[in-house]
Design a protein that fits this description.
heterodimer; A: 390 residues; alpha+beta; DNA primase, PRIM domain; Ribosomal Protein L9, domain 1; four-stranded antiparallel sheet; three-stranded antiparallel sheet; 14 helices; 20 strands; B: 419 residues; mainly alpha; Transcription Elongation Factor S-II, Chain A; DNA Cyclobutane Dipyrimidine Photolyase, subunit A, domain 3; 2 domains; two-stranded antiparallel ribbon; 21 helices; 58% helix; globular
């Protein structure tokens, strides 16, 4: 990796990119007095964007089981989904991974961006929408940059505190008045600002949708164990009572048969539904490198691009972030080099799955994607190693 | 008076709280030094003038140091007069010259506690109504508004502080009740009661009154040390500190600031570093380091010794708490070390800290099979895997040595053969 480079203007940056053609390009999210200095101490820290990284990679999704693969390096055995600890064939522990993307994981990231911006950045933090800069990362997620003066100057502790708030980390039931008073369990009020109110509102919204929704939420939590079935039944049968209590802003939520421990589990399940699933490490880092806008992501060939928030809803990364014109004459001849190449939708068409050794003539964006994913190799170079774009 | 109008604060408040911005203007007015002349007067001249114009100043400063060196972090001298104001810059200079961080922390704690005491005492609401508190914050550049009509759950929350100001201080208190997630937070504002605001102000004052040790360079320092009053004060302080050696020279740490054993996890190293510099620890930091020591075969005596350099060290309290944590008192239950999740929620995890961070905490330990084991407890997992890591390193060094000696032998043999 080549680091510590500084350019006097965009012109020099573009010239550098043309001459070196790096597979991945990043810029620092930090502003320095001397960005080109060799060591961090010499750079002279000024400020740092508050960057939020939302990536399907660290959000639990079911689709991963369908489109990710692990290939044993020793015997070549293929395992669908997460890589196993050991290969069942040869006991080998080293694997090559094929991490794929699909509409489901891209939509999960998008949903989390909406959650972050709507429920946290705009509502709680009151950040003007024009100060929220949104980028598609070029792969499985999005980057949100906050460039207001107040966020630029935050130290690492303050950044962690904001990340904790967004991810629901450190919520103290004790401090939020969750306790038993004369055998009455005290809940939260929907009027409470911040997390207590969020939990009360979320529970209310689930309860009013009826039993199927209650079961769906508490039988399939995003993280951790299901709610005990007996407790779930009690919650269902006391649904109306709790709806009345919450809507009339009464904080006594005592229900016979639901212990303190069960209530805490209920709140934890709700917390995991409310929080924005962000990569905390990125947000608290004061010297982070972040993908360069306009560059191509080396694992997909898609463009890292700035988005307007109002365009996010209709943004389709597998169509709108493609690097080259979708011209039928723009094709490449490739050969599948990995044992498997899962199915991918690019533009309006599906491609694959393909098997090793298959020789294909594919649209440029698709071929590029497969090569960036290291599952295919170029078989024919056009016009003396130069790819002509039509 | 201009500054009084600017901040809506009376002259008396500036005399009482010399850490307020522009309180020096009051001092210069009293010394009849015109604002336009300030640029041409050196710091040395100002110090000399202060001692000359306020003859009682020297004794007051000596009395102040006598008190704080004896662990009494409170003013035994009057706090609302011009001498109190004149003391402030001299105290800062003296502590900077001494370079002693334990003394510096004792100084800041005294000012911070004094502020809290004045704003919380019986008549404080009359003397310092909420509006005055708002003006004090405004003087310090902190955005905190007052609205006496805001109620949450039947409790009045008259103060609304903006997020950056709140985070600047609350994150240094390291207690879960100050976490943003556990606060009434809406529209970028944190709703606070008066008691909260006083505690936050106390922390602001602590940060603001921290001496800048780099402020006085070598040249200035040698000039300062020619002023008879400064020589007298530095002499007196070093004598006073010598009689309280245990507090000012911790026996656990070497002077070169190398911290503890190489098996200590980053979180503990960071706490020990703070305590070594005479900083007061938060409740959770104290417990964390005490639990760690007691769970890693250290004695109660060794554990109590850690806290000796804290400005607010009280042997009886520290011993009682340590014995309690060790299971010698109370219910006889020995407390185990906080796990990593708990430490993270207290902001005490330093896995990626540039000074203390450790790859082991960040990435987990790697078993021979390639399986990654996350570090979940600093007293158990970290130490175990650190030992493994060190052993592996040692082993690889031995192998390397053996290989290189094999290589040399081979070369020798080749040379001999060729001969």
């Amino acid at each position: 990796m080549v680091r510590h480079i500084q350019f006097p203007s965009n012109k020099y940056l573009i010239r550098h990119l043309i001459t070196t053609a790096p597979r991945h390009s990043y810029h620092s999210a930090t502003y320095y007095e001397r960005p080109g200095a060799e060591t961090m101490d010499q750079k002279g820290y000024i400020a740092c964007d508050f960057v939020v990284d939302i990536d399907a990679d660290h959000i639990p999704t079911n689709c991963r089981q369908n489109h990710d693969y692990a290939i044993c390096k020793a015997c070549g055995a293929i395992f669908q989904g997460e890589k196993p600890l050991k290969c069942s064939g040869c006991e080998g522990a080293k694997f090559d991974k094929i991490s794929w993307i699909c509409d489901e994981c891209l939509n999960v990231s998008k949903k989390q961006v909406f959650n972050l911006i709507e429920n946290f950045l705009l509502r709680d933090f009151s950040i003007p929408i024009e100060d929220i800069h949104l980028y598609f990362s070029g792969h499985r997620g999005y980057h949100v940059h906050l460039r207001t003066k107040t966020f630029l100057d935050l130290d690492q502790d303050a950044r962690r505190e904001i990340s904790d708030y967004v991810t629901g980390e450190g919520f103290s039931f004790k401090i939020w008045d969750y306790r038993k008073i004369q055998n009455n369990m005290m809940g939260f009020s929907i009027d409470d600002p911040g997390w207590a109110g969020k939990i009360a509102k979320n529970l209310y919204n689930i309860l009013i949708q009826g039993e199927p929704r209650i079961r769906e939420v508490f039988e399939n939590p995003i993280y951790g164990k299901n709610l005990n079935p007996a407790v779930l039944n009690i919650l269902n049968s006391n649904r109306q009572y709790l709806i009345n209590q919450i809507s009339s802003k009464r904080k006594i939520w005592q229900v016979a048969g639901i212990s303190d421990k069960s209530w805490i589990r209920i709140f934890e399940i709700l917390r995991d539904r409310i929080k924005a699933d962000i990569d905390v490490v990125v947000s608290i880092d004061l010297h982070r490198l972040i993908r360069l806008e306009g560059s191509l992501h080396g694992k997909t060939g898609f463009r890292v691009m700035k988005l307007k928030y109002e365009d996010l809803k209709d943004f389709d990364p597998l169509k709108d972030a493609l690097s080259f014109p979708d011209n039928p004459e723009n094709t490449l001849d490739i050969e599948i080099s990995a044992p498997i190449s899962p199915k991918i939708r690019i533009g309006s068409n599906n491609y694959g799955p393909y098997n090793k050794g298959e020789k294909l003539k594919l649209p440029l964006n698709v071929a590029l994607f497969l090569m960036c994913k290291d599952v295919a190799q170029l078989t024919q170079l056009i016009n003396n190693n130069k790819i002509l774009l039509k | 008076m201009e500054i009084v109008q600017k901040y809506n604060l009376s002259k008396q408040i500036f005399l009482q709280f010399p850490w307020l911005n522009e309180s020096s203007t009051i001092l210069f007015e009293d010394l009849e030094i015109a604002e336009e002349k300030l640029g041409s007067i050196s710091l040395i001249d100002i110090v000399q003038t202060l001692f000359k114009e306020y003859p009682v100043l020297l004794d007051r400063i000596k009395q102040f140091f006598r008190n704080i060196i004896q662990s009494k972090e409170e003013f035994s001298t009057p706090t609302g007069d011009i001498i109190h104001l004149a003391m402030y810059p001299i105290l800062q200079i003296i502590v900077s010259l001494s370079g002693n961080r334990i003394l510096g922390n004792a100084l800041t704690n005294t000012y911070a506690k004094h502020c809290q005491f004045e704003l919380s005492k019986y008549n404080a609401k009359k003397d310092f109504p909420n509006k005055i508190l708002q003006n004090i914050f405004s003087n310090l550049g902190i955005s905190c508004t007052v609205d006496e009509h805001i109620y949450k759950n039947g409790i009045k929350y008259p103060f609304q502080m903006d997020l950056p100001s709140y985070l600047k201080v609350s994150t240094k208190i390291r207690n879960e009740s100050w976490k943003l997630i556990n606060r009434f937070f809406e529209d970028g504002k944190i709703y606070l009661i008066r008691h909260d605001v006083v505690l936050l102000l106390r922390e602001f004052v602590r940060q603001k009154t921290l001496p800048d040790y780099k402020l006085i360079n070598k040249e200035l320092s040698s000039q300062m040390e020619k002023i008879p009053e400064i020589i007298d004060l530095l002499d007196e302080i070093s004598k006073m500190m010598a009689s309280h050696k245990k507090r000012f020279e911790s026996s656990i740490f070497s002077e070169g600031e190398t911290i503890g054993s190489e098996l200590f996890p980053p979180c503990i190293k960071a706490i020990l570093y703070r305590v070594m510099h005479g900083e007061n620890l938060s409740h959770n930091e104290r417990l964390g380091v005490a639990f760690f020591y007691l769970n890693t075969n250290h004695s109660i005596e060794e554990t109590v010794d850690i806290f000796r350099t804290s400005p607010d060290f009280d042997e009886n309290i520290a011993r009682y708490q340590t014995e309690f944590a060790a299971g010698s008192g109370g219910k006889g239950k020995k407390y185990s070390m906080y796990n990593c999740v708990k430490l993270k929620s207290f902001h005490l995890c330093k896995d990626d800290d540039p000074n203390f961070g450790d790859k082991l905490c960040r990435d987990g330990a790697k078993k021979r099979s390639g399986e990654i084991v996350p570090i979940q407890n600093p007293a158990k997992d970290f130490i175990f895997w650190k030992k493994v890591e060190l052993n592996r390193h040692l082993r690889s060094q031995i192998v390397e040595q053996l290989e290189s000696s094999d290589e040399t032998e081979k070369i020798k043999k080749k040379e001999e053969d060729s001969k």
